[in-house]
Design brief:
Helices cover about 60% and strands about 0% of the residues. By secondary structure, it is mainly α. The longest helix has 29 residues, at about 1-30.
Length: about 350
């Protein structure tokens, strides 16, 4: 019995030493690159007070140099060594714990990385293709799809499946993610870690923007699936997403189809993005006339390309922005553009009150 205990003690001691060496090596190795106040990215990323301290300013100073590091963290999964490090970290001497990264579950680190990418905004555009790949993996997880299965984002927008049911409850996620993330999930009405990460990924993409041709398709799928209050948040971010004309042209078929969506949040978000391509009111008549071509079969054939067919769509959009919490500047620009488009069809075509940008 004594021999067995001695063997167990030796194994435990050996594992601890290896973890110590690995932790120190990782800490030293990860802190290469740009610094802020003499400290590198890994130090500031692992700062437990990062939201209240200078860590955010540190990553702003790193700018685009931080994107590869943050994208790698956004893709991180829990591993056996990481779990062992978490288990043993509390047994390390205090002086060493102060010098080693605070152990975090992978989802907490991903939460942190996605938040920082959103803060970097346009400086993180080099990471958009990787973030779309991250969104794809989270989407597969939420829908119980095989890992690596190709996704047709435009097709997913027009044929969005129902999210698979889960037995996990928001109140019992303490063993899955950190308490801070758990509180956010409960407040947002989300039920699984994948739901929470999905929202953060979409938020980061919307704040970064850019000209990636797949950007708007991913955001529209996310908006279509978003529950209740979360949909309002994502819709606002999509309305203000700093996209380029190239990205909007690539997403135009989906945006035009979205003008007919049953959800007003989606209709207004799509119209807001289309302003990038067409700011003149008269041009919107043509846009709406073309929109039926991007609807499924029977709906496409039912909508003739006659300008008059677009009047109800334009009027409904005007009503939508009256009822939706749209930002004042966007509200005014979109409202005036829609009014101009109706007036261009001739007298008596408006038939609605002129929006007052007083929201």
């Amino acid at each position: 019995m004594a021999i067995r205990q001695d063997i167990r003690w030796r194994i435990r001691a050996g594992v601890t030493v290896l973890l110590l060496l690995g932790g120190v090596w990782g800490w030293l190795g990860m802190d290469q690159g740009p610094t802020y106040q003499g400290r590198g990215m890994a130090y500031w990323f692992n700062d437990p007070q990062w939201m209240q301290g200078p860590a955010v300013e540190a990553f702003r100073s790193f700018g685009s140099n931080a994107v590869p590091f943050l994208v790698a963290e956004a893709r991180r999964l829990d591993s056996v060594p990481a779990e062992a490090y978490r288990q043993h970290w509390r047994n390390f001497p205090v002086w060493l714990r102060w010098r080693l990264p605070l152990p975090k579950l992978a989802n907490a680190r991903r939460d942190h990385a996605l938040t920082l990418l959103a803060i970097l905004g346009s400086e993180a555009r080099s990471g958009v293709p990787d973030l779309i790949a991250v969104c794809a993996e989270t989407y597969r997880q939420r829908h119980r799809l095989p890992a690596g299965q190709p996704l047709d984002w435009p097709g997913l927008f027009t044929n969005t499946p129902v999210v698979a049911a889960t037995s996990e409850k928001a109140g019992g996620l303490g063993s899955v993610i950190t308490n801070r993330a758990g509180v956010v999930m409960v407040a947002a009405g989300l039920n699984t870690p994948a739901d929470h990460l999905w929202q953060l990924e979409l938020s980061a993409l919307a704040k970064i923007g850019g000209d990636d041709p797949g950007l708007l398709a991913v955001l529209l799928v996310g908006l279509r699936e978003a529950p209740g209050r979360t949909q309002g948040v994502i819709a606002k971010e999509l309305r203000n997403c700093p996209t380029s004309a190239a990205a909007v042209r690539a997403g135009a078929p989906l945006l035009l189809a979205a003008l007919h969506d049953p959800q007003p949040e989606i209709r207004v978000a799509a119209a807001s993005q289309l302003l990038v391509l067409q700011r003149g009111g008269a041009g919107w008549v043509d846009l709406v006339a073309r929109s039926w071509a991007y609807l499924p079969g029977a709906e496409a054939s039912a909508g003739a390309a006659s300008p008059g067919k677009g009047i109800p769509v334009l009027k409904r959009l005007l009503a939508d922005i009256e009822e939706t919490e749209v930002e004042k500047e966007k509200y005014q620009e979109l409202g005036q553009t829609l009014l101009e488009s109706l007036r261009s069809l001739g007298p008596g075509k408006v038939g609605v009150a002129t929006p007052e940008p007083g929201k």
